[in-house]
Amino acid sequence: MFSSLTGSLCVWGRGVGGYLFAGVLFHLALPLVRSIFMTCRLSENQTMSDFSSPEFPHARKAAAHREGGASGSAAAGREKLIDGKAFASALTKETAEQVRAFHAEHGVTPGLAVVLVGNDPASEVYVRNKALQTHRAGMRSFMHMLPETTSEAELLTLVDRLNRDPEIHGILVQLPLPAGVDARRVTNAIAPEKDVDGLGEVNAGRLALGLPGLVPCTPLGCMMLLKSAVGELRGLNAVVVGASNLVGKPMALLLLNEGCTVSVAHIDTVDPQALARTADILVVATGHRALVTKDWVKPGATVIDVGITRIPTDSGKTKLVGDVAFDEVAPIAGRITPVPGGVGPMTIACLLRNTLTAANMSVTPHEAD
Predict the structure, then answer these.
(1) The model scores a pTM over 0.85
(2) Residues annotated in a binding site for NADP(+)
(3) Is NADP among the key words of this record (predicted)?
(4) Would the pLDDT of 33 be above 70?
(5) In CATH, what is the architecture of 76-84+215-345?
(6) Residue 65's pLDDT band (cuts 50, 70, 90)
(7) Residue 358: burial class (beta carbons within 10 Å; 0-12, 13-18, 19+)
(8) What residue segments make up the domains of the chain, in order of their start?
């Protein structure tokens, strides 16, 4: 572009003073030409722009984060832990206040139905804890504890009844389900407006398209923690380790919708460790204990550990650990979630928030997007 303009100016300049005039005119026109060129480049292919340029504030934010200088980094140096327990407590309190306001305005108490099939002790404790937290938030809890022998047809019949019950605003079927029961079919049988786990195909599709809907609870909780710890996410490199439908895929979509440059490491990724080291934000959800060590983490990165595994200790007791080797990663991370006390408490808090959202949807007329 510049060479063709120089040639044109030189030809024109031969009749009015030669190359000297052309050179002066070119010198005066150059800033304008550069401006036009940069504007065209940005509008035609924004993703290819020079993001180190000072014209791009989000690029400066991303660059600062990569150098360990993002906003809040000084505080992160003093307090690296992202306290999910405290955040979840505050979120649940806020939800409870909104439940009271919702009831005062509409005369309706949000109701959450939780279905458990089988007799797994850990799942029973988890489901009962959900019921307790639901009551504490001022909502109604409907528990359905079904035997291991429950057939798929019987479970689908229950889901259909809950779909038609006006007192039920949210339905959650605890996974995994017994052998012989198609979890996908059961999940998709839940009415999308009551799918508070956000796992049905309708809500998954809306998330993929960037449309409003009910988002899976664990990824939603991770996103809340990230926004609280990091602030603006646009322009940052994010790597999600793990590609499950429950966490990995929706997490990647949430990050993409926030303007991050997102990569997903999965079982077929050739060098997941090298990919992870490019991340400003590293979310790990694999179910493999202590998979991510310090060699996976770029200094200053924000690390979200979704994994949770119970292991025995030398004392004969047990403890919970995550997918990240916390003791060796924490010193080099900018911010990091602990296990326990990180992502775990956020899942139930976001389930309650989704139930309130579903209740609002039931009383608020809305048009299709």
Answers:
(1) no
(2) 242-244, 267, 308
(3) yes
(4) no
(5) 3-Layer(aba) Sandwich (3.40)
(6) very low
(7) buried
(8) 76-84+215-345, 109-209
